[in-house]
């Protein structure tokens, strides 16, 4: 029978086990004491909603909503939960019910609709969950993103936002924003949620030492953190050149100019169009425009085509006599410094300890290798640096070239304009990692599995 009224889910009795993209396995949740809706993964690619013995097509918005539900539950509640008792734990948990109350079933479309504004979880409860688990040092340059689940990183991102000025009144909005961004990151080998969090975290580490010295405002800090977290949201796992050469819809939309970076900007502001996800919803007029222009310019600054121009600006800034010559005076200087900071955070992973940097090296090479295969099939040009990456020696050679030509010159300048513990650690690790890449002889073992 058709659904004639809106029902709110009350409790999850079994959390989704996502077995592959766009398919769900065995998730069911209670809509009301009298009615239950099951979402079933079938052998075919179709997924349907069971409503009173009538099946309704599983819509795209339902897919998004279910992903969101699972992400939120696991992020806020199950950071250190015992998976073995998951079903019983969730069935009677007040926190789970609160999470699910922000979802409704439409009386007209029978689709699940996300009601972000109704989210009212106590963030302190989430923080206490973290404290009950192992202690996490978010201020460490050696923080290992691979030691934590994607859902745990959501909680850590919220904690960092709080440390950087998000008020108690903004906590719900902050949670909504972080979860929405995390959900829109795609499952690429490299350009994924973990990478987005890493750039966000590296930005935070540098900011924590630099912002006070430079007198940056709370809003400026939040603009940068929002930009860092969103800087690769929706990344398809290929380069701008691939977008342009394949004549993608994105390339046409953005006129071949910083195609992916413009795409990330667009998604960021689409998320913030929802007031419940917008930390800056109270800004109006010139303040609103300043916020928007700042975030746009920060995300666009992560396009590698701007690298050498930014490096030239940084060289000028390192000379005190030329510091005031940067276009725009002190205000313009701060914008340039923020752009340098986010670009630096995006270039940090090869300056981390080997156990982390080598994993990122394998992941980016996996992504390049997949693009090269696609380009070959499509008859598109393949960049020389994307060839020969099936062997660890080829991957090591690529990383050595990147360290020598891009990273060492860049980070040597960064330490002159915004030195911090992370910056010094990166400069030190670049030399160590470069030496290890030069010693790679084994063509059968992934870089991250090599023993030195």
Summarize the SSE layout with pairings:
Layout: E1 11-14, E2 17-20, E3 23-25, E4 27-30, E5 36-41, E6 47-51, E7 54-57, H1 60-76, H2 86-91, H3 94-100, E8 103-105, E9 112-114, H4 123-132, H5 150-163, H6 171-184, H7 193-214, H8 218-230, H9 240-245, H10 249-253, H11 259-272, H12 285-300, H13 307-317, H14 329-346, H15 354-378, H16 392-417, H17 421-438
Antiparallel strand pairs: 1-4, 2-3, 4-5, 5-6, 6-7, 8-9
Helix pairs in contact: 1-5, 5-6, 5-7, 6-11, 7-8, 7-14, 8-12, 11-12, 12-14, 13-14, 13-16, 14-16, 16-17
Query: How many angstroms separate the termini?
Result: 65 Å
- Percent of residues in β-strands: 5-15%
Average predicted local confidence, pLDDT = 78
Helicity level: 40-55%
pLDDT < 50 stretches? 1-58, 75-126
CATH architecture descriptor text of the largest domain: Orthogonal Bundle
CATH evolutionary superfamily of the largest domain: 3'5'-cyclic nucleotide phosphodiesterase, catalytic domain
Please provide the count of β strands: 9
The geometry reads as globular
CATH class wording of the largest domain: Mainly Alpha
Strands in their spatial order, largest beta sheet = 1-4-5-6-7
Structure write-up:
There is one protein chain. With 452 residues, this protein is of the alpha+beta class. It folds into two domains: 11-119, no CATH class; 136-449, Catalytic domain of cyclic nucleotide phosphodiesterase 4b2b (Orthogonal Bundle), CATH 1.10.1300. A five-stranded antiparallel beta sheet has the order 1-4-5-6-7. A two-stranded antiparallel ribbon has the order 2-3. Strand 5 and strand 6 form a beta hairpin. It has helices spanning 60-76, 86-91, 94-100, 123-132, 150-163, 171-184, 193-214, 218-230, 240-245, 249-253, 259-272, 285-300, 307-317, 329-346, 354-378, 392-417, 421-438; strands spanning 11-14, 17-20, 23-25, 27-30, 36-41, 47-51, 54-57, 103-105, 112-114. It has 17 helices and nine strands. It is 54% helix and 8% strand. It is globular, with a radius of gyration of 23 Å. Mean pLDDT is 78; it is low at 1-58 and 75-126.
């Amino acid at each position: 029978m058709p659904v004639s009224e809106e029902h709110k889910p009350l409790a999850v009795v079994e959390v989704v086990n996502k077995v592959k993209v766009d398919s769900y396995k065995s998730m069911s949740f209670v809509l009301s004491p009298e009615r239950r809706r099951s979402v079933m993964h079938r052998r075919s690619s179709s997924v349907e909603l069971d409503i009173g013995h009538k099946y309704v097509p599983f819509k795209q918005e339902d897919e998004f909503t279910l992903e969101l539900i699972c992400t939120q539950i696991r992020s806020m509640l199950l950071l250190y939960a015992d998976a073995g008792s998951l079903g019983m734990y969730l069935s009677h948990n007040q926190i789970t019910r609160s999470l699910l109350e922000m979802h409704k079933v439409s009386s007209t479309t029978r689709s699940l609709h996300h009601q972000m504004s109704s989210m009212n979880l106590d963030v302190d409860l989430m923080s206490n969950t973290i404290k009950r688990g192992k202690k996490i040092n978010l201020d460490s340059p050696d923080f290992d993103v691979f030691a934590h689940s994607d859902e745990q990183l959501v909680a850590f991102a919220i904690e960092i936002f709080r440390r950087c000025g998000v008020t108690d009144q903004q906590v719900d909005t902050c949670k909504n924003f972080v979860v929405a961004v995390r959900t829109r990151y795609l499952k690429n080998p490299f350009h994924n949620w973990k990478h987005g969090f890493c750039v966000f975290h590296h930005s935070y580490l540098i900011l924590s030492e630099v912002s006070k010295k430079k007198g940056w405002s709370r809003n400026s800090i939040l603009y940068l953190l929002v930009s860092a977290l969103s800087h690769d949201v929706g990344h398809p796992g290929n380069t701008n050149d691939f977008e342009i050469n394949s004549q993608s819809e994105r390339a046409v939309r953005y006129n071949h100019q910083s195609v992916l970076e413009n795409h990330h900007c667009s998604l960021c502001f689409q998320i913030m169009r929802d007031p419940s996800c917008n930390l800056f919803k109270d800004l109006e007029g010139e303040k609103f425009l300043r916020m928007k222009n700042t975030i746009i310019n920060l995300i666009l600054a992560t396009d590698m085509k701007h690298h050498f121009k930014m490096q030239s600006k940084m060289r000028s800034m390192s000379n005190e006599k030329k510091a005031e010559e940067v276009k725009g005076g002190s205000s313009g200087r701060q914008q340039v410094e923020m752009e340098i900071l986010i670009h630096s955070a995006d270039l940090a992973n090869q300056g981390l300890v080997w156990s982390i940097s080598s994993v990122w090296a394998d992941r980016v090479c996996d992504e390049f290798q997949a693009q090269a295969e696609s380009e070959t099939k499509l008859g598109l040009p393949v960049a020389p640096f994307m060839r020969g990456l099936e062997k660890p020696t080829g991957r090591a050679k690529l990383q050595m070239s990147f360290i020598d030509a891009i990273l060492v010159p860049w980070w040597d300048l960064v330490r002159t304009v915004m030195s911090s513990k992370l910056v010094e650690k990166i400069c030190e690790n670049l030399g160590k990692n470069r030496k290890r890449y030069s010693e790679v002889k084994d063509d059968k073992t992934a870089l991250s599995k090599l023993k030195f």
